[in-house]
Amino acid sequence: MSTGLDGRSVLVTGAAGGIGAACARRLAREGARLVL
Protein backbone atom coordinates (compact mmCIF):
# COMPACT_ATOMS: atom_id res chain seq x y z
CA MET A 1 0.00 0.00 0.00
CA SER A 2 1.42 3.39 -0.99
CA THR A 3 1.05 6.21 1.53
CA GLY A 4 2.47 8.89 -0.74
CA LEU A 5 5.28 9.61 1.74
CA ASP A 6 8.12 8.12 -0.30
CA GLY A 7 10.81 10.80 -0.53
CA ARG A 8 8.69 13.46 1.20
CA SER A 9 10.18 15.49 4.07
CA VAL A 10 8.35 15.39 7.39
CA LEU A 11 9.00 17.46 10.54
CA VAL A 12 8.38 15.44 13.71
CA THR A 13 8.36 17.25 17.04
CA GLY A 14 8.64 15.28 20.27
CA ALA A 15 10.48 12.42 18.57
CA ALA A 16 12.68 11.74 21.62
CA GLY A 17 10.16 9.34 23.09
CA GLY A 18 6.61 8.12 23.36
CA ILE A 19 4.13 8.77 20.58
CA GLY A 20 6.51 11.10 18.71
CA ALA A 21 9.19 8.38 18.53
CA ALA A 22 6.68 5.79 17.37
CA CYS A 23 5.40 8.15 14.68
CA ALA A 24 8.94 8.92 13.52
CA ARG A 25 9.76 5.20 13.19
CA ARG A 26 6.56 4.55 11.24
CA LEU A 27 7.09 7.52 8.91
CA ALA A 28 10.67 6.40 8.22
CA ARG A 29 9.44 2.89 7.45
CA GLU A 30 6.94 4.39 4.98
CA GLY A 31 9.79 6.12 3.13
CA ALA A 32 9.59 9.67 4.49
CA ARG A 33 12.71 11.78 5.05
CA LEU A 34 12.59 12.94 8.68
CA VAL A 35 13.57 16.17 10.37
CA LEU A 36 13.59 15.52 14.11
Please render the helix and strand layout as text.
Blueprint: E1 9-11, H1 18-29, E2 33-35
Parallel strand pairs: 1-2
Question: Could you please describe the fold and organization of this structure?
Answer:
By secondary structure, the chain is an alpha+beta fold. The protein has one domain (1-36). The chain is built from 1 helix and 2 strands. It has one helix at residues 18-29, and strands at 9-11, 33-35. It has a two-stranded parallel ribbon. It is globular and about 25 Å long. The model has no long low-confidence stretch (mean pLDDT 92).
Number of domains: 1
What value does the Rg take, in angstroms? 9 Å
| H-E string | EHE
- This entry's quaternary arrangement is single chain
Strand runs, count: 2
**Straight-line N-to-C gap:** 25 Å
Helix content: 25-40%
Structural class: alpha+beta
Query: Given the structure, what is the number of helices?
Result: 1
Instruction: Name the shape in a single word.
Output: globular
**Beta-strand content:** 15-25%
* Spatial order of strands in the largest sheet: 1-2
Short description:
The chain is an alpha+beta fold and 36 residues long. The protein has 1 helix and 2 strands.
